[in-house]
């Protein structure tokens, strides 16, 4: 199958410059168009979706799965799978309260990566999801 040639600048984005410096038209590789505010975010994050779900649960233990999904920016199905992973690994405990699930975080579980396995996840939660004043901490 033959594709017709598109003249340069006719709706196609400009090619990336040589040398790997990224596109010249304000885009970043893999991130799509530049938002109206001008803040360009890289296509990766320091925390995985598992980390974001854990933080959301630590901050909002009575949140519905759909609320956690919206907060993290993933689907409800992906959130359910992550909650199951975290529960199976012992990072979360699920308690049924009527028809709803209540989650509690075990902040004394170690990180899974060998480089930081000497640290507990409660240390991360203390920094990124601190308990409100007067509330019992997650760690």
In a few lines, what is going on in this structure?
Helix content is 29%, strand content 9%. It has helices at 49-59, 65-72, 76-88, 121-128; strands spanning 92-97, 100-105. The chain starts with 48 loop residues before the first helix and ends in an 11-residue tail after the last helix.
Describe the structure.
This protein is α+β, with helices and mostly antiparallel strands and 139 residues long. It has helices at residues 49-59, 65-72, 76-88, 121-128; strands at residues 92-97, 100-105. Strands 1-2 form a two-stranded antiparallel sheet. A hairpin with a 2-residue loop joins strand 1 and strand 2 (100-105). Helix 1 (49-59) packs across helix 3. 14% of the residues are buried. Mean pLDDT is 79; it is low at 1-14 and 16-29.
- Main sheet strand line-up: 1-2
Quickly give the structural class: alpha+beta
What is the ordering of alpha helices and beta strands? HHHEEH
Mean pLDDT: 79
By DSSP (H or I, 4+ residues per run), the number of helices equals 4
Using the CA coordinates, give the radius of gyration.
Answer: 21 Å
Distance N terminus to C terminus? 60 Å
Work out the helicity level. 25-40%
- Low-confidence stretches at least 5 residues in length (pLDDT < 50)? 1-14, 16-29
Number of strands: 2
Strand content: 5-15%
Q: What does the overall shape look like?
A: globular
Largest β-sheet summary: 2 strands, antiparallel
